[in-house]
Amino acid sequence: MTRIVYLSEFKEAQSDAALAHFLSYACQHAPFDRLAWWEGLAEHCAMTPLLAFASNEGGMAVLPLASGSGRLTALANWYTFRFRPLVSGPRPPLDGLARALRKRAHRITLTNVPDEDGSATATQKAFRQAGWLVRREMCGINHILPVNGRSYEDYLSSRPGKVRTTLKRKSGRVRAEILTHFDEMAWAEYEAVYAQSWKPHEGSPEFLRTFAKAEGAAGRLRLGIARDALDPHGPAIAAQMWTVEGGTAFIHKLAHREAARVLSPGSVLSAAMIAHALDRDRVSLVDFGTGDDPYKRDWMEQQRPRYSLDMLKPLSPRNWPVLAKWALRSLAAGTNRG
Length: 338
What we know:
- With 338 residues, the chain is an alpha+beta fold.
- The chain folds into 2 domains: 3-141 and 305-337, Aminopeptidase (3-Layer(aba) Sandwich); 149-283, 3-Layer(aba) Sandwich (Aminopeptidase), CATH 3.40.630.
- Helix content is 35%, strand content 30%.
- The chain has 12 helices and 13 strands.
């Protein structure tokens, strides 16, 4: 017998001891898999949550969803590196959850689903077996650095020549500092650097600040600030926000002032952050999040695909326009191959 529960208030999840424990740091070692992350999205990013939860003697399955635009989507946004269902036990009831969701939605769209852990394949299989039509497509790239026990010096020796040359020429001109706690003044400097960088407008600064403050209190924050070495008390010219847990360093945000580009402060600060992660935090993996930006290839060594899964109830009239588009795209693809 599978128990299905839908929660629209996170306090309801916290009142279920087993579920709250499963979604806490004790069991989940990436921020995107925890209740606190989803609470932040709901509170600061105008998302309406629907937490779908299934449990039976074989285990449990949790799918954090958001409602809006006439469908259910992943409870995730631009801050989320990857999205996946959370499962536990020898036979987690993901298929039971997929069947139950047919009564709650005509369409469910998930993006940035990984498959190095089998999440995309397992989700696709569960929904297809439950009677959904599923379209799976690659939607992004995740750049990573498997450390393989290397020191920073070992890692640096394998970087492209242009990176090593830049660091040799510019490291003496930039002073980097790495904080492992949240500091209001340092955070204000990060925001000032971001505002004068090439980066687009921040989606929800309060979400990121709240997350950084909580990670700082837990000892997981790594906040890097770089200044001109000739003006050590002057304004920050580059800033980066990382977190470290479960053997992984997550690179959440980085930016530098365009006016200081000649000093390559972003590169010098990246080198300092990676050195800290490898030699002090002793991480086994550095995760540069989503996006196939060319500069990420200078620092990372491998790429992992991210997938979108679009699930449709086949008999729902609301899905007919989407099914027509799918058919046209398949026809066009077949024509191009011919």
